[in-house]
Design goal:
Elements: E1 2-8, H1 13-26, E2 30-34, E3 38-40, E4 51-59, H2 64-77, E5 92-98, E6 103-104, E7 109-110, H3 119-132
Antiparallel strand pairs: 1-4, 1-5, 2-4, 3-4, 6-7
């Protein structure tokens, strides 16, 4: 199972999410199931805007590194500004789980080390898992 966290705090989250799904589909990455969207206060002490967050299940034959590159390309296509860590952003796509892979590199850590500590991931994740049950 491949799961990603999806978030946005600038502009229309619905539009950013729809554009991201379309972008990924064109790369051969299919969104199989989505949680509902949930609103959360900013996290990390920098962002000022409320975030819309969700968790999506994906299907792809791309490697974790190749998937990460495509997720970052989708973020860039949305106009994401990476100059301020933890800042507000148009689109944030993070790999949470990639099957049973355990990876720890400078660019990618799987499973995502912070996912069980963040309500903005856990609540949509539980919603998605209920839909898959």
């Amino acid at each position: 199972m491949i799961l990603i966290a999806v978030g946005s705090s600038i502009g229309s989250a619905q539009n950013h999410f729809a554009a991201a799904e379309e972008f990924l589909q064109k790369q051969g990455i299919m969104v199989v199931q989505k949680s509902d969207n949930f609103m959360f206060p900013p996290w990390g002490g920098i962002a000022k805007n409320e975030f819309t967050n969700a968790v999506w299940q994906l299907k792809t034959d791309k490697s974790p590194d190749a998937l990460l590159a495509q997720l970052q390309a989708a973020e860039d296509a949305s106009g994401r500004d990476r100059s301020t860590r933890w800042g507000d952003r148009t689109l944030d796509l993070d790999i949470l789980i990639y099957n049973d892979e355990k990876i720890e590199t400078a660019d990618l850590k799987l499973p995502h080390p912070g996912m069980l500590k963040r309500d903005f991931v856990l609540i949509p994740l539980l919603d998605l898992l209920q839909k898959l049950a």
